[in-house]
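Re: that backbone. Tokens:
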């Protein structure tokens, strides 16, 4: 189970706690993974490697993040406020890269400037994310992948069945009215991913388990790749990771029918499209994190579920998922619909 902010309710071997809170037998072991935004995508890749090796046959790869109950960076700030330690980066690391800190917000701004994007282009991409997310939700495209959760409302019990972040009435004017995060910058809360709560999971099995449990597969994992690069600009690594994954798989980008590139910030998928030479009409066809939210540790398996269902609904074959991650890391997973 992937999880980024491992503190409070998300601490103390969260993956194991999830097993104990579920209907799974207590004999099921678990491990909690932090690869920042790629945590649950890495869970998928570790699961695939485990079933391929034969050391395990059936694995639930999952992720969770409650960004309201454990706010982003709260586990870091707790120690800083208490005056304990120096934070996540040693002075040696900061001196090596000549920075005062590593900032994803600054990295996103650097990408926008490097690739020559304008604020208007970033906002237009954000608007398209809301339009695609709204269209998918209204058409019922997410119904097969969302598990309804019973919640309490002032009016009584209800079922939570839809992503709350979608702005069905979004306009370029409303998105453009949101102030930038820094003076002279282009990144705003409207053209970046939404803070939200979420959890997700996929079941990974090998051929022996498939036959032994009489399961019907939905997709096959075709390639798993992870790379690392510049920790300062950090969010650009999906480009290199995609190139390497395609080369290792013996494929070209034109062989891929749909892509899920996490919309951490609008410049990330835009730069990926530009450098990879990909088709924008195949990208995040049901919207992305700008409209649907980015529950950090849960986003990897969430995007995987969406990609599998989108391929099935469109009768397409190959899908590629990639995620920018803190520290300049990126995962790529290529799947084949069955």
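Recovered sequence:
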């Amino acid at each position: 189970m992937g999880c980024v902010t491992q503190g409070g309710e998300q601490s103390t071997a969260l993956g194991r706690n999830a097993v104990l809170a579920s209907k799974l037998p207590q004999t099921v072991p678990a491990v909690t993974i932090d690869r920042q935004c790629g945590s649950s995508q890495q869970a998928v890749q570790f699961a695939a490697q485990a079933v391929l090796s034969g050391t395990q046959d059936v694995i639930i790869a999952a992720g969770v993040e409650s960004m309201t109950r454990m706010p982003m960076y709260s586990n870091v700030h707790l120690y800083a406020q208490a005056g304990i330690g120096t934070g996540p980066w040693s002075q040696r690391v900061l001196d090596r890269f000549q920075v005062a800190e590593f900032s994803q917000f600054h990295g996103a701004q650097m990408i926008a400037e490097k690739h020559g994007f304008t604020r208007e282009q970033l906002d237009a991409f954000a608007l398209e994310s809301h339009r695609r997310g709204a269209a998918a939700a209204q058409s019922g495209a997410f119904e097969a992948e969302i598990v309804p959760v019973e919640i309490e409302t002032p009016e009584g019990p209800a079922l939570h069945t839809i992503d709350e972040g979608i702005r069905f009435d979004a306009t370029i004017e409303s998105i453009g009215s949101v102030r930038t995060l820094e003076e002279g910058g282009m990144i705003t809360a409207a053209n970046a991913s939404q803070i939200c709560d979420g959890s997700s999971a996929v079941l990974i099995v090998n051929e022996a388990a498939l036959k032994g449990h009489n399961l019907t597969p939905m997709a096959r994992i075709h390639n798993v790749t992870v790379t690392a690069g510049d920790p300062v600009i950090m969010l650009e690594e999906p480009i290199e990771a995609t190139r390497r994954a395609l080369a290792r798989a013996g494929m070209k980008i034109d062989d891929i029918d749909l892509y899920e590139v996490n919309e951490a910030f609008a410049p990330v998928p835009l730069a990926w499209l530009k450098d990879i030479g990909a088709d924008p009409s195949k990208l995040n066809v049901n919207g992305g994190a700008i409209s649907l939210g980015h529950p950090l540790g849960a986003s990897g398996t969430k995007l995987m579920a969406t990609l599998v269902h989108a391929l099935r609904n469109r009768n397409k074959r190959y899908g590629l998922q990639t995620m920018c991650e803190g520290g300049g890391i990126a995962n790529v997973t290529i799947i084949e619909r069955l």
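The two ends are 25 Å apart (CA to CA). The mean pLDDT is 96.
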